[in-house]
Amino acid sequence: MKVLLIGSCGRMGQNMQEMLTERGIEYVGIDKNNRQDAKNYACDVILDFSNANCLHENLLLAEEKHLPIVVATTNHTEENIKEIQQKKDKMTIFLESNFSEMFHVMLKFIRQFQNMKTCDFVVQESHHKHKKDVPSGSCKQILEEFKKYDICPTVSCFRVGEVVGEHKICAYSGHEKLEISHTVSNRRVFCEGAIKACEFVIGKPYGLYSMDDII
Prior knowledge:
Largest sheet: 6 strands, parallel
Order of helices and strands: EHEEHEHEHEHEEEHE
Shape: globular
Structural class: alpha/beta
CATH class of the largest domain: Alpha Beta
CATH superfamily of the largest domain: NAD(P)-binding Rossmann-like Domain
Distance between the termini: 21 Å
Strand order of the largest sheet: 2-1-3-4-5-10
């Protein structure tokens, strides 16, 4: 497998480079300085760790090179999502905001609350102070899962220190409290998940995939 890594100089891009090197996976790093050379590189999959503003040109690149693309950026606009939906029938796209397998296991617990709508629900998330999107893409995933069951939790978002990622779900009922939490202490977790996504998506039929297709 050879990866075309877009956004290689960013926080996650640098972590990805380290892990790809450790795993002996061949890759080419792309940033704004050598973006114009991307069309010349022969790769098996594109991994996008740039930002949501670059989605359009990254999808075009994948389409032109006939490559699957793993979109690992967050804070997408409605226009971004609309474009992904329009292109999923003519290219292979893996879209995910959180590449932690444990996080997605936590999401599956939410369905257990579908018959407990009299509870008060609270979703709390914490990330490092440099993170721009509030709420995060992961937090939005949690809320979307609750929305399936017509539950609207209270949400608290914190941007503090160098916290990699903490998400907590609390359910309050009378004299009871149930708490489910997930904490990531090292970005390598996301890198491992992204590599699995790259391996998974190569050779897959056109369509839209996510971590739910892996777990």
